[in-house]
């Protein structure tokens, strides 16, 4: 049979390990979630920039088409 003092230290080690393990797990998950959030925000910024650029290109294309139509109306067909 184990001496009575060693059983108490076993409980202390188990409790300390549980608390420290929980704190470490919380810290690791916090870091993972933070980095994931930053990556997703960066992806969102790139996506929004692409959508703005695409909208500008489409607007420019519509303006070019309108100018070509206007020029075609001004020039008589020969």
Please give a structural write-up.
- This protein is mostly helical and 78 residues long.
- The protein has one helix spanning 4-74.
- The chain is rod-shaped, with a radius of gyration of 34 Å.
- The N and C termini lie far apart (114 Å).
- The mean pLDDT is 88.
Low-confidence stretches: none
Query: What proportion of the residues is helical, as a percent range?
Result: over 70%
Subunit arrangement of the protein: single chain
Give me the strand/helix succession.
H
What's the rounded overall pLDDT mean?
A: 88
Q: Main β-sheet: number of strands, strand sense, barrel status?
A: none
Summing up helix and strand content along with how strands pair, one would put the structural category as mainly alpha
Strand content: under 5%
Rg over alpha carbons:
34 Å
Number of E strands: 0
Shape: rod-shaped
Count of helical segments?
A: 1
Task: Give the termini distance in whole angstroms.
Answer: 114 Å
Structure characteristics:
78 residues; mainly alpha; 1 helix; rod-shaped
């Amino acid at each position: 049979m184990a001496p009575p003092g060693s059983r108490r230290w076993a409980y202390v080690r188990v409790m300390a390990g549980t608390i420290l393990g929980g704190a470490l797990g919380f810290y690791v998950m916090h870091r993972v979630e933070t980095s994931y959030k930053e990556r997703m925000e960066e992806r969102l910024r790139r996506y929004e920039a692409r959508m703005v650029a695409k909208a500008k290109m489409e607007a420019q294309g519509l303006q070019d088409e309108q100018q070509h139509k206007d020029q075609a109306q001004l020039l008589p067909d020969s």
